[in-house]
Amino acid sequence: MEGPVHNDTVGAAIYSEATEHDQVRAVPLSHLSIEVGHFYMEDLLRGDDWIRGQFQRVAPWVAAATAAVDTGGAKPRVSTCLLMDDYFRNDTSPAAIMDRLVGIAAECDVRIDYVAREAGCCVADDVPLAELTAARLLPEPAPGTNGSRPPAHESGWLCNGERSGDLGSDQAMRSRRWRPPQEFGKRNHSIFLDVEMWKDADDKVNGEALPLRAWSCPFLASVWQLLRLGMLRHYGDAVAQPQQWQDDASWPDRWSELPAVIRLNKHASPFAAYRSMSILPRWYLPIEHAVGVILGHLGLDDAVTEQVVTRGAAEGLRVPRSVTERLSHVFIEGS
Predict the structure, then answer these.
(1) What percent of the chain has pLDDT over 70?
(2) InterPro entries, alphabetically (predicted)?
């Protein structure tokens, strides 16, 4: 099946601020969460040799990251995870893939503690994670913006600066010179990025037109990073908590029959962590750039941030308040 598998009806903004009435539930935290792969369905159809090549390139970086992790003097808690894209396409079967995938990873000395579904970054356990995240967007208004372009929460587009077309029409007519975009907080020169976070398309239910939303890969990847950093709550409760997969269980035929996050290794360190590292093929670079822009424009729960920072300090760790400072990446060869 091509195209987004999960489209959400767009309704009123959903917001889940931790308040005095909602006690913020803590989640277990590792020192580091290492993403050892992000597989599209078409990747899984390229054969065992291609999958093996990916894990062989990942293995030395996993070892290096594990050896270098800052633990504050404690025993290292490092977990690994793998993200499967079942949102844009889900026409493969876990029953035909998962044992083979995990087995190839083990051959390459890559341990997979957790497997997550990208569709679970949209909705998990009936909690609309993508909508919760979108409701936290705090777009930074550019100087001189005249309102000719809708705000991010209406347009689905978010940028890291002032667009070249943000001048009013009268002002533009008076000046024929091209006006370049400007990055917020630029260092000498701008690196301007405009990110599409979602598309809305009308559909009809019982004859009534309803807006349907298809989330972009960068936006779902932003939700994925927030889950890995333990930063999402719904009325104070933890979301998308890992479910233990039994060794003797049979994999289902459909991805939708699996939990959002599965724990394969019963002895694994916690899924969420103070910091995350993603080891990805280099063509993911623009996606992760977009993720950084999105995360930089979110107003996350202060109570959750304070909880994580305080817990880190108690372990002798400096945990930045900004989630973008808790991310790291290694981009490897791969296509």
Answers:
(1) 84
(2) SCO2522-like
The answer to whether position 284 is within a domain reads: yes
Answer whether 123's CB lies under 8 Å from 75's CB: no
In a domain, 22, yes or no: yes
- 235's tokens: 């009325």
134-162 tens-digit pLDDT: 999 986 665 555 556 678 888 899 998 88
Q: Which of 143, 138, 137, 219 is nearest to 181 (CA)?
A: 143
Strand locations in the chain (E): 8-9, 30-40, 78-85, 114-117, 157-159, 161-162, 182-183, 194-196, 198-205, 208-215, 233-234, 237-238, 243-244, 261-263, 273-281, 327-332
**224 lies in a domain?**
yes
Q: Which two tokens stand for residue 158?
A: 């978010």
The pTM for the full model equals: 0.88
Residue 296 lies in a domain: yes
DSSP per-residue letters across 50-101: HHHHHHHHHHHHHHHHHHH---TTSPP-EEEEEEEE-SS---S-HHHHHHHH
Domain that includes residue 326, residue range: 8-135+214-332
Condensed to tens digits (0 to 9), the pLDDT of residues 2-46 reads 455 544 434 333 444 544 556 899 999 999 999 999 999 998 889
Q: Note whether 47 and 79 are within 8 A (CB).
A: no
- The tokens for 227 are 């889950």
pLDDT in tens, 171-208: 555 556 778 888 888 888 988 999 999 998 876 666 67
Q: How many domains does the chain have?
A: 1
